[in-house]
Automatic annotation (TrEMBL):
This is phosphoglycerate kinase. GO terms for molecular function: ADP binding; ATP binding; phosphoglycerate kinase activity. Signal peptide: none annotated. PANTHER family: PHOSPHOGLYCERATE KINASE, PHOSPHOGLYCERATE KINASE 1, CHLOROPLASTIC-RELATED. It holds the Pfam family PGK. It comes from marine metagenome. The keyword Kinase applies. GO terms for biological process: gluconeogenesis; glycolytic process. Monomer. Belongs to the phosphoglycerate kinase family. It is an enzyme of class 2 (transferase). Gene3D superfamilies: Phosphoglycerate kinase, N-terminal domain. Its EC number is 2.7.2.3.
Length: 406
């Protein structure tokens, strides 16, 4: 990787500002905020342990929710400090400010290997505005900046980009944490020269969200499989009826351009040949039927790929050596429409067991794999949503660009 990582740094005695992704889901119980899922906290432990064992004084900065520059008590990071202390097995100081005298004093008190978590950076509107003065205050006296928050790296905020510029300008190093390093390795380096056949599976709701990903991957993939509601915009573009399916009629032009680019480059571009369709009746879906015709009848919606498409997609996936998957094949939240998504999930795991490298590009495909109990049977699952998509578009992320080159 072209950027410094925490393995390249001598941390002993240094003050290290570390951006982490602690945007964890919480619910209120008897006036207390309870963390429902600590996956994101657990994911930072390898990076933190490495820095602790190397004698760093660690100042953690993170955001939680969207307080929009206000001090919203339910979005305080205080419960995260307690949770982290339990998981890592050492005290974690918490400061209810992220800048100013109190934050500076708390950082100054840190001993080698100590941990301090600062309050939610988004309590200040200057964070999202990447305000230089705010970034300077957040950077404080830090000697080094490390970033393990891949999920926030697509945003040029003070805590992801601004602080790095300030610390670098005074000669400090800015490095990727281990979690960030893995994201860059799998979503970046591994897909630069993938072992072939390289099969890309894209699904989800909208063509508009993923067209730049399709465009970029058309330059790398051997086969692209399209499922989800996205497939219906392609169907509409090809002149077929889509009934009441979720489509973007103003995006048929870009769908046709993608089909043409695939033909020009010799990329196999597979759309579903059949679908499950359903109707909304008094606010409830009717049981699905298989529709093998190109046209979807009036009043019906395509809700999943059909059995013929499942078989074809799974056959292609079984022959892949590198797989990238982002987005479900249907409305998998309803178990009647989840067969396509779960069959693809099983096929991806099967190919992985036979030696393929499988990379899951974040969001709902990660959710589907976890729901199917298959999360540990793929090579890599990204922790990013928007950040993964931006990265797969071939864009450099501001939070990555800000790190020191090797
Ligand atoms: P995305 O975030 O773009 O990956 O989209 C995920 C969402 O797409 C999920 O909530 C799915 O329910 C939805 N989705 C997938 N297929 C369809 C479909 N055929 N019709 C409507 N929504 C769909």
């Amino acid at each position: 990787m072209a950027k410094l990582t925490i393995n390249d740094i001598d941390f002993r005695g240094k003050r290290v500002l570390t951006r982490v992704d602690y945007n964890v889901p919480m619910t209120e119980q008897d006036g207390l905020m309870i963390i429902n899922d600590d996956t994101r906290i657990l994911a930072t432990l390898p990076t933190l342990k490495l820095m602790i064992n190397s004698g760093a004084k660690i100042i953690l900065t993170a955001h939680l929710g969207r307080p929009k520059g206000e001090r919203v008590p339910s979005m305080s990071l205080r419960p995260v400090a307690d949770k982290l202390a339990g998981l890592i097995g050492q005290p974690v100081e918490f400061c209810d400010q992220c800048i100013g005298q109190a934050a500076g004093d708390a950082a100054a008190k840190l001993e080698d290997g100590g941990l301090l978590l600062l309050e939610n950076v988004r309590y200040h509107a200057e964070e999202e505005a990447n305000d230089a003065d705010f970034a300077g205050q957040l950077a404080g006296d830090a000697d080094v900046f490390t970033n393990d928050a891949f999920g926030a790296a697509h945003r040029a905020h003070a805590s992801t980009a601004g602080v790095a510029g300030i610390i670098a300008a005074r000669g400090g190093q800015c490095a990727a944490g281990l979690l960030m390093e893995r994201e860059l390795q799998f979503l970046g380096d591994e897909l630069e020269a993938p072992e072939r056949p390289f099969v890309v599976i894209l699904g989800g709701a909208k063509v508009s969200d993923k067209i730049k990903v399709i465009d970029h991957l058309l330059e790398k993939a051997d086969t692209i499989l399209i499922g989800g509601a996205m497939a219906y915009t392609f169907k509409l573009a090809r002149g077929f009826a889509v009934g009441d399916s979720l489509v973007e009629p103003d995006k048929t032009g870009i769908a046709l351009a993608a089909l043409q680019k695939a033909a020009e480059r010799g990329v196999e571009f597979l759309l579903p040949t059949d679908n499950l369709i359903s109707r909304m009746n008094d606010g409830a879906w009717t049981d699905p039927e298989v529709n093998s015709a190109e046209d979807i009848p009036d009043g019906s919606e395509g809700v999943d790929i059909g059995p013929e498409s499942v078989a074809r997609f799974c056959e292609v996936i079984a022959g892949a050596k590198t797989i990238l998957w982002n987005g479900p094949m249907g409305i998998f939240e309803d178990s009647r429409f989840a067969e396509g998504t779960f069959s693809v999930a099983k096929a991806v795991c099967g190919a992985t067991a036979s030696g393929a490298k499988s990379i899951i590009g974040g969001g709902d495909s990660v959710k589907a794999l976890n729901e199917a109990g298959l999360g540990d049977q793929v090579t890599f699952m990204s922790t990013g949503g928007g950040a993964s998509l931006r990265f797969l578009e071939g864009k450099e992320l501001p939070g990555v660009a800000a790190l020191t080159d090797k």
